[in-house]
Structures
1.
Amino acid sequence: DGGRLYLEEVKWEMSGRKVQLVVEDSATRVDVSLTKTRKLVEADRVQALVGVVLSASAIAIKDYITEKKTPFIISGFAVAEALTMEKVSPYLFRITYGANTLPRESAKWVYRNLNARTATIIASDTVGIVELAMGFARAFEEAGGKVVQEIYPPLGTADYGPYLAGIRRDVDVVVECMAGADAVRLVRQYQEFGLKGKIPLVDPATFIDLTTLPAMGEAAVGAYFSWGYVHTLDTPRNRKFVQAFHAKFGRAPGSPAAYTYDAMAAIHAALNAIGGKIEDTPRFLDALRKVDLELPRGRVRFDRFQHVVSDVHVGRIEKVEGKVVPVVIQSVRAVEQFGGMDPKEYIKRPRLFTLKGSFAK
């Protein structure tokens, strides 16, 4: 819907070229993602790809789009660091965030502002989400804190009771990394178990979004978050975007809408720079690398590894005028994936904090 809104705003035309949008559903399965990508490239002959939710799907697609020389902008939650650090493809861009960006800022903020010194991590046992958890753990310990407990339930867990019962009651924060229905169940059961209000719940990059927040309801109130886009961000550019999105779809935009809107804007800016000649792939890619835009979430550009440099918003879930909403407390400007370190030195660091997750085995 975010992509459609952008295209309607430009009357389905970019730099004098008509735009056709072809949409496929990966069903959050890696094999389906690759099959649908092949269909889009070989049958529909698309000239650019936008989307993908899972890290594993993006990893599977990466070699294929490189072989086919098809530009691909990740606008979903494919956060695996390797996508924009190891064997970087000139055809792959990420406009959302990586596993080390949002969690790093969340960890530093929690350490400073909540005076948290010990943490329990509970994360779904899948590659992208465990990387997010590890991004928090690494930054939290670098700040001076200590992760004293790690819990990795499998994806699709219905009853988190046994896991919640095992959480240490002497920790300063519980860091939750889950998405979708798993996040909804965990947050609700966290309240049912009587943990809400006793140990602050921190989400460094997964559940705090309008795709899940309404289902969590008041159970989420009081949780802290870090996120790349928050619909309550009080800026003229974002207010305009939220108003337009609400007018068209009858609801506020979540981050998937904002990220896909941003991807369309980046494609448009690149096309304007080369006179609309998207068939000239090398020039189009070079123009994408130079994109620098003010968008609803703030300033957006790419580093030399084609990973986004943008703001990170830290806040708390509150009930405002009867609605449960994310409220921004602080915006950290121009966050990049290496945290100020030399890329070569950063990449040498151990990627995982521990190897307890079954995926790591």
Note: The mean pLDDT is 93.
2.
Amino acid sequence: IPISPAEEIFWRGLLQNGFVAKFGRSSGYIITTLAYSLVHLPTFNYPLMLVALIAGLVWGALLLKTGSLVPGVISHVIFNEMIFVILPIN
């Protein structure tokens, strides 16, 4: 659970907000999303990179829409728990 809030604080709170301030709303959002996806490149797990791209789009859009990290943090925690805890049990 602690990794999800930390990732949202770093990726959306720090990087996306910084890139939006520097490059504008759309460009900052796209740069952050691409970086979030590409940081998974060293795993050579291309499905993971695709999921990170889609999730990054969703979590970044939540920040743009609400102006708050809370919806993204909640969504990220639920997503990670589903993927890493609940679904592997089934």
Note: Residues 9 and 69 are 7 Å apart (CA to CA).
